[in-house]
Amino acid sequence: MPTTRVLIRQGDVVYRFMRLETSSDGSLIVLVDRDPRSKRGGYNWTFDLSSYETSTPVPVDPANDRPLPSSRFSVHTTGVIHRYAEGVRQGTMQIEALHNLTKLWTFGMVSIPSVSRLDLLEVSKHRHDGTAILEIPENVSERITFLIEIGPSPQQPQSFGVGLNYELYSLVARVVPNPNFPAEIKAEHFVAAMSDAGTQGPIDKALAELSYYQRIHGNTAFVFREDKGGAYIAMAIVPMAKPPKLTITFNRPDLKIEIIPFEGRPPTHKVRFWICDKGGRNRTEDLRKFISSVELNAEL
Fold first, then answer.
1. pTM to 2 decimal places
2. What is the CA radius of gyration of the chain?
């Protein structure tokens, strides 16, 4: 997954704040960029981003006193957004599909007790494909709260922050005044919350994925793209009655394709495959340049 880090620099020190990973289907994962650690002494509760009203915090179960990942949000092409805490899904909301965003949607909040409580960036260890850096003055030592928003690309933050522009959407993290957290939330606590705003109803997953790539590539007969692990995906223009059949002719006699089955019920708009040579699956070279023809047969 291509990775972008949002870093915070304070003086000569650079800290990791957020990590963003884009997947091959167009979805986005937003993570609080901290190493796994015990959640002992933490709390779970609901927090309304529109009114800043909260429920009574509930202490984290001390039985789970083991290193656990920090909060993350998964933003899918359908507009479904999940929030995870302690490695478990804690909430879900639905916004517009990512190919059809018409406004900025606030979907999350991340509040850090101070910049110095973040984990350091180690260049040799923490790899990434791109960065955005927020400069925080050295005399700022108090809590800082960020809203996390997504909207049509391009976007600029409406307050101090950063806007990361992708092909069809932008992710914004910007500073807002600190809420009045419940008394149980201490100065050393990290806080992550999710909005409960959303649209009318769910959006079809296959149509959302197809529409996303048609916005990028146009209404071609099919979309041919890379997938994780060195595989490829071929997508038909619309969902079909049954999964499409793929035939590829190469100008090299030693090349062929190997279909990769999907787990569970197979989708009716796409097929996943590897390109193989005599030595097996070749993941180190772009073998698409040896393709002479592609045929994707699908039935309505």
1. 0.80
2. 22
